[in-house]
Specification:
Helix content is 40%, strand content 14%. The protein has 304 residues and is α/β, with parallel strands linked by helices. The chain has a six-stranded parallel β-sheet, sandwiched between helices. The chain has a two-stranded parallel sheet with strand order 6-9.
Length: 304
């Protein structure tokens, strides 16, 4: 199967290229990397020539404008990049009978539901910020393009994504801890936002299962692929320091401590759905343990 990945230079895109490269169904040529230079969200009309040139049988759309505060400051640009570009891609792939996996977010929900469970795929979305609204618009555009059912569409929602190449919550919180220690202060971390930290490699593995599965029905619809378990930002930080065996004083503070252009959901928890294999993704603490050695190496390199 010829699989193309948009946003191949990003966090999820890199993980997808790695996992797809090891997948037997992609053949000796491996996956097709579409970086921003190949498919720019600001020039979505280029997708038709790209599809006709590379002729993929499936596309994973991992590219998006994920700057949530930027989306809040410029909702129109968010709509163009996260809705209009998805529409152009989905209409072009659907017209050619190409399967599509569209990656979305937990922020299509506003986080105000009772905290007795996570959001399920059949819960009605209600975005609470322009980023979530734009991502929901992308879901809607893709669904409309595939309404005829001549090819498969899967919508994959994730939350609190982290992993190489860094510049994610774990790496940022480690830098913040160093600054707090230098100032002789406790590390202040938000304690009233909850989600499911999800390792990019694990998310990529689940998406590749969708593509390589034998059951066409299992590869369609909405999927919530997150590492199971719920924690706050502060809880995530404490677990990171525990695994690093570092004694860092964490002070929980409300999200309102730092005013932002965007308002993230307080309860951004997705109820996990199973990948086609039926095997659940591993708990978030176990996935984080695989990332800790990467963080150690990055810090050692930065200290040299």
């Amino acid at each position: 199967m010829r699989v193309a990945v948009t946003g191949a230079g990003g966090r999820l895109g890199r993980a997808l290229m790695s996992v797809l490269g090891d997948a037997p169904f992609t053949g000796p040529g491996g996956p097709i990397a579409w970086t921003r230079a190949a498919f720019d969200l600001d020039a979505p009309w280029t997708i038709e020539a790209l599809l006709d040139r590379d002729r993929p049988e499936a596309v994973v759309h991992a590219a998006a404008w994920t700057d949530v505060d930027g989306c809040a400051r410029d909702p129109e640009l968010a709509r163009r990049r996260n809705v209009d570009a998805v529409r152009a891609l989905a209409e072009a792939t659907a017209a050619r009978g190409i399967d599509l996996v569209h990656v979305s977010t937990n922020e299509v929900f506003d986080g105000t539901r009772p905290r007795d469970r996570g959001y399920r795929p059949d819960d009605v979305p209600s975005p609470g910020n322009p980023y979530g609204a734009s991502k929901l618009g992308g879901e809607t555009a893709a669904t409309a393009a595939y309404a005829a059912g001549q090819a498969r569409l899967a919508i994959v929602r994730a939350s609190w994504l982290y992993g190489p190449p860094g510049n994610d919550f774990p790496s940022k919180i480690l830098a913040a801890a160093e600054r707090a220690a230098a100032a002789g202060e406790p590390l202040r971390v938000v304690g009233d936002e909850f989600g499911c930290p999800t390792f990019s490699h694990d998310l990529a593995e689940a998406i590749v299962e969708l593509l390589g599965g034998d059951d066409p029905e299992a590869a369609t619809g909405i999927h919530h692929f997150v590492n199971p378990g719920v924690t706050s930002r502060a809880g995530w930080a404490r677990e990171l320091f525990r695994q690093l065996d570092e004694d860092v004083s964490v002070e929980e503070v409300p999200a309102a401590t730092w005013p932002r252009a965007s308002t993230p959901p307080e309860w951004g928890v997705l109820e996990p759905t199973l990948p086609p294999s039926g095997e659940p993704m591993r708990p978030w603490q176990a996935a984080l343990a695989d990332y800790v050695p990467v963080l150690r190496r990055q810090r050692a390199a930065a200290a040299r």
